[in-house]
Amino acid sequence: TQLLEQSPQFLSIQEGENLTVYCNSSSVFSSLQWYRQEPGEGPVLLVTVVTGGEVKKLKRLTFQFGDARKDSSLHITAAQPGDTGLYLCAGAQNAGNMLTFGGGTRLMVKP
Amino acid sequence: NAGVTQTPKFRVLKTGQSMTLLCAQDMNHEYMYWYRQDPGMGLRLIHYSVGEGTTAKGEVPDGYNVSRLKKQNFLLGLESAAPSQTSVYFCASRDLTSGRVPTRSYNEQFFGPGTRLTVL
């Protein structure tokens, strides 16, 4: 059982649609990150959230950290083919020397 | 800056063979990590290092050894490869957290392009 559960695992949508990806845990994290990974490459950081209830926006992407700092969501508005990729959430506990990754959500946006 | 580089990019081994994966970073980062990525399981931490000469076990350390003799390099060794070690291996590095107010880059890890390993 993974410490961080992501849902859905796969998502295939049409360009212009909205979507939400969830990252849930029964554990509390001091910070939570979202990474995006494209085929043949390593993950790249999108955002870090630290405060419970925090909302951050990155263009059409909106990230929210749960009030209890146990869960997070990523919402994409008007998805574009360029959003296609694997989205990973990762949580840090205590000093943050290590990250625990979720299983990932593979998103495909069709033109 | 090249960032984080990994060699080789691809490798095929037979069961029982040994090999070493090399990770190098030119950002003067203190922390370095080795992960494996398998379908549906995200990234799982194998070993990590918080500085030159130090290493620690992660979530799935069995069957792997590591060394950090130089700050910029982190080596991952497989002494006797098994088919269960077929995976994509990623190295990452990060700087010491600085400042009292977390920024976007707080705890940010920078990843290499990965090594695809197949063990037959």
Key terms for this structure?
heterodimer, A: about 110 residues, mainly beta, six-stranded mixed β-sheet, five-stranded antiparallel β-sheet, 11 strands, about 55% strand, globular, B: about 120 residues, seven-stranded mixed β-sheet, four-stranded antiparallel β-sheet, about 0% helix
Give a topology summary:
The complex is a heterodimer of chains A (111) and B (120).
Chain A: E1 5-7, E2 10-14, E3 19-24, E4 31-37, E5 44-49, E6 55-58, E7 61-65, E8 71-76, E9 85-92, E10 99-101, E11 105-110
Parallel strand pairs in A: 2-11
Antiparallel strand pairs in A: 1-3, 3-8, 4-5, 4-9, 6-7, 7-8, 9-10, 9-11
Chain B: E1 4-7, E2 10-13, E3 19-25, E4 31-37, E5 43-51, E6 54-57, E7 65-67, E8 73-78, E9 87-94, E10 110-111, E11 115-119
Parallel strand pairs in B: 2-11
Antiparallel strand pairs in B: 1-3, 3-8, 4-5, 4-9, 5-6, 7-8, 9-10, 9-11
Q: What radius of gyration of chain A results from the CA coordinates?
A: 13 Å
Question: Largest inter-chain interface?
Answer: A-B, 27 and 29 residues
- How many extended strands of chain B? 11
Number of helices of chain B: 0
**Could you describe the largest sheet of chain B, including whether it forms a barrel?**
7 strands, mixed
Shape of chain B: globular
Uncertain segments of chain B: none
Flag low-confidence runs of chain A: none
Helicity level of chain B, as a percent range? under 10%
Structural notes for this entry:
The complex is a heterodimer of chains A (111) and B (120). Chain A is mainly beta and 111 residues long. Chain A is built from no helices and eleven strands. Chain A has strands at residues 5-7, 10-14, 19-24, 31-37, 44-49, 55-58, 61-65, 71-76, 85-92, 99-101, 105-110. The termini of chain A are far apart. With 120 residues, chain B is mainly β. Chain B contains no helices and eleven strands. Chain B has strands at 4-7, 10-13, 19-25, 31-37, 43-51, 54-57, 65-67, 73-78, 87-94, 110-111, 115-119. In chain B, the strands form two sheets. In chain B, strands 2, 4, 5, 6, 9, 10 and 11 form a seven-stranded mixed beta sheet that branches. A four-stranded antiparallel beta sheet of chain B has the order 1-3-8-7, with no helix packed on it. In chain B, strand 7 and strand 8 (73-78) form a beta hairpin. The termini of chain B are far apart. Classes of the chains: A mainly beta (111), B mainly beta (120). The A-B interface holds A 2, 4, 6, 9, 31, 33, 40-45, 47-48, 50, 88, 90, 92, 96-104 and B 4, 31, 33, 35, 40-45, 48, 50, 58-59, 90, 92, 97, 102-109, 111-114.
